[in-house]
Amino acid sequence: MSSYPPFAVTVDLVVLTVQGDELSALLVRRGVPPYEGQWALPGGFVDIDEDLVDAAVRELSEETGLVDPAGHLEQLGTYGTPGRDPRGRVVTVAYLALLPDLPAPVAGSDAASAQWQPVSRLSEGDLAFDHDRILTDGLERARAKLEYTPLAAAFCPAEFTIAQLRAVYETVWQTRLDPRNFHRKVTGTPGFVESTGRVTEGDRGRPAQLFHRGPASLLYPPMLRPAAE
Amino acid sequence: MSSYPPFAVTVDLVVLTVQGDELSALLVRRGVPPYEGQWALPGGFVDIDEDLVDAAVRELSEETGLVDPAGHLEQLGTYGTPGRDPRGRVVTVAYLALLPDLPAPVAGSDAASAQWQPVSRLSEGDLAFDHDRILTDGLERARAKLEYTPLAAAFCPAEFTIAQLRAVYETVWQTRLDPRNFHRKVTGTPGFVESTGRVTEGDRGRPAQLFHRGPASLLYPPMLRPAAE
DNA sequence: CAAATAGTGTCTCTGAGACAGTATGAG
DNA sequence: CTCATACTGTCTCAGAGACACTATTTG
C-alpha cells in the first residue's frame, strides 16, 4: 500500500430539516484553520478501519446528539478536486440526511458551534471549502427525490397528518399545492402512507387523521413538482 | 497530513454500450493479484494531483483507446467498505459511462485483456472485488436515467433514427415499445431530438429521418418504463 | 405486385388540476 | 352562530397506450 498515493478521506453531511416554513441545513462554525470561524457542513475524517456510512452516522450523532434519528441517510456524491482542501489531498464523501424537526435541535458535544440555518438565507461563498457546491447538490437531490420516493415522510415525525406532509412539499419545493388534490393523491398512491386510525386533537378545525410511512420505496405514479416558469 | 489515516483512492468504470440487442459492459481480465485472472471493471489508482473525473477519463481512454468518445460520463457512487480490497484500505469512486457501439470495440493498450460482455450473461460472483455490486448499481442508474433524461442518445451515433433510439430503450429495459407511440412521444418531447433533414438510404422499407440529440437535459414529460409485473 | 419499415390519426382510459360542496372541530 | 381545517365529488384537459391507416422504400 505504501507505494500508492496517500489520500485523506473525510465525510461531510448535508443535514436538512423543515422548521416552520423554512428548509434548514445543519451547519457548524469551524474552530480551527483552515477557514477558521467560517460556517461549514458537519463532517470529519474517516477512521482507517471504519466504513464510510458508519463515519457519516458517527459524525451525525456527534453533531446532533441523536443516535439513529428516524430520518433518512444516503450517499450524495464524492468531491475530490485537488486543492479543495489546503491541508493536502482530501477526498470527501458527502452524505445527505433528512430529519424531522428535532425537539432539541442540536444537543451534541459540538452544540455550541452548530446550528440550523434556513437555506434561503445562504448564498454562494458563505461556506468553507467547496461546501456551497455540496449543499446545492444536496438540496437538488432532496427536491428531486420528493417527486418519486416517499422521502418527504423522513422530514415528519413518526405519525403525521396529510397537511404536515404537504407542508414539507411546499417548503422544500417553494410552491403551493392544492390541499384537496394533494390529499387525494397521497392517500391514493399505494404504499405511501398508512392510516393509524388516530386523529389529532386540540387544533383548530376538523381533526385530521394521523398516518405513518407506508412500505413503498418508489412512488408510482410520482408526485409532480409544478413546472418551473 | 501525515497525521490523518492514509487511504488509497481508485476510480472504477461501469462502461455500457448497446451491441445488437444486448446491453454490454466493458470488462478487463486482471493480470496481477489480487483476483488474478478474474474479470473486473476497468479502473485504477488516482494520481495524487489528479481530479477524480480526469482519472476516470484517463482510465477510459486507456481501456477503449478512445479520446473523448461522444458518450456520457457521470459519477455513480463511492465504495469504501474496509476489507473490500485485500491490499489495504482502498476507496473507489465509481463512474458510469454510456457509449455508442464502437467501430473498433476495444483498441487501447490493454486491448488484449479487455472485452465487451453482455450483462445478461453475468451473474453474482463473476467479478473481482465488489464490482458485481458496482455494476448492478450502474445498470440500475442507467435504466432509471433513460426515463427522465435524453441519455439514450448517448448509446447512439451522432446521427440516428427513431428506430435506433427505440432499440436502445428496448435493450436497456428488456421490453417492447410500440414503434408508433414511441415515435410520436420522442418527436413530441421538446428538446429530445432534432431533425437533421437527412434520411437513411439502402435499408428495407421507407427511409427514416436522421436526428441528432436535442438541447434538453431533462425530459418533460418523462419516458415511462412499462410497470414491471 | 408483396413485404417491410416509417410515420399519422384517432379512440379510450388514467390521472392531474380546478374548484364546489360536505364534515367536524374550536370559539 | 362563524370560522377554520379536513375531506369528497365532479368536471376538464393532457398524455399514454391500442391500433387502423397512409407513405415510401426494396425485391
Automatic annotation (TrEMBL), chains A, B:
InterPro entries on file: NUDIX_hydrolase-like_dom_sf, NUDIX_hydrolase_CS, NUDIX_hydrolase_dom, WH-like_DNA-bd_sf, WH_DNA-bd_sf, WHD_NrtR
Keyword annotations: Hydrolase
Transcription among keywords: no
Short name of one Pfam family: NUDIX
Transmembrane segments: none
Domain Nudix hydrolase: 6-141
Protein name, UniProt field: NUDIX domain-containing protein
Organism: Micromonospora sonneratiae
